[in-house]
Amino acid sequence: MTHKIAVLAGDGIGPEIVDQAVKVIDCLQRELGWQVEMEQAPVGGAGIDHAGHPLPEATLRLAKAADAVLLGAVGGPKWEALDIAIRPEKGLLGLRSELQLFANLRPALLYPQLVHASTLKPEVVSGLDLMIVRELTGDIYFGKPRGIRTLENGERQGFNTMVYAEHEIERIGRVAFESAMKRGKRVCSVDKANVLEATELWREVMTRVAKDYPQVQLSHMYVDNAAMQLVRAPKQFDVMVTGNMFGDILSDCAAMLTGSIGMLPSASLDSKGKGMYEPIHGSAPDIAGKGIANPLATILSVAMMMRYTFNDIKSAAVIEAAVQEVLVEGLRTADIYTAGTHKVGTEEMGDAVVAAMIRNIWRAETGGDASAEKRCMREGGLTNGID
Ligand code: NAD
Hints:
The protein is of the alpha/beta class. It has 2 domains: 1-102 and 270-387, 3-Layer(aba) Sandwich (Isopropylmalate Dehydrogenase), CATH 3.40.718.10; 112-137 and 166-261, 3-Layer(aba) Sandwich (Rossmann fold). It is 42% helix and 18% strand. It contains 13 helices and 14 strands. Helix 7 (197-210) links the parallel strand 8 (186-191) and strand 9. The chain is globular. The structure holds nicotinamide-adenine-dinucleotide.
């Protein structure tokens, strides 16, 4: 079966980092016989430049027809003066709503080699492996009525509506519980049920959904406490599930626990497992074109794609192990560089991950026989790390 991936590189560092992720997909195809069709299309600023719209019709068609979407990042100073309705970021929001991607999965995993890149003490973050599941298409961001009105006394008042229907809470709850079943079997549901009725219902529905997952332990936490606990003792969490606004804030907080925004992948899924996979960072215009961006978040987004859309645990593990290996080897892009490690550029990092993937695949195939492995590598024209 051929898998279809829409590749939307976007703006700024997007094309540079997506190129490295495409190399990883090519490697899966070459080395593991994975059948894939990749097609590129412009989105964001590139969409505006190419077709006058941040989400050109042809791009949306391609994304809808694909099994999964790989996205780089959108936006940049070039398009900042445009009306907000046609800015690059609208391309991203359009994709999320058109593809009905209601579940945002953001793992925050701290690699042991990067413990000192975090702003928190090593003993607080060392071993961190947390999954934030954020609802992405509801809540106060979409609730109506909303706007700015003038009161009788002439003063202006801004207002938004926090709203969640039972089915919206239930479906994100199920994503969280399913995720926990593949991990540590613990879900912490974050709300503000002591003050907000919308989240009182959230808590009630989460408790109901939990009955279908007796192996998973459910706890509830108010959002203010959750923010504090994330920086006090983040390792207490396995899966954290929350609404759109609380998730927006908490997931950025969790991202920084791991040291660099350049390390964190994400998945946004629909109800059938189709997903859009992207690094959590933006287009980083300050470093675009310099060849120094960290491609690992985008490469790890491909691993998430394998796991969540294609249910291909083996390929996901091959990618994740390769990323771990290049970090063990001491390779670092500028954002994660510390004294005593070896600084590399975007391409060099991508090539190193691919080389590590090939090494591991062949190591598995030759049963760890070093001479057979060397022979295989030479035949493949690769000697990196072997001789
Ligand atoms: P940003 O994430 O692009 O950059 C923040 C800082 O992190 C910058 O110093 C940047 O150099 C650094 N950084 C980001 N990714 C990196 C990587 N892979 N390797 C090394 N360093 C990296 O956020 P910003 O500067 O606030 O936004 C820039 C543009 O990106 C804006 O137009 C914004 O709207 C857009 N944006 C897009 C997305 C998206 O496409 N999903 C998300 C956030 C921001």
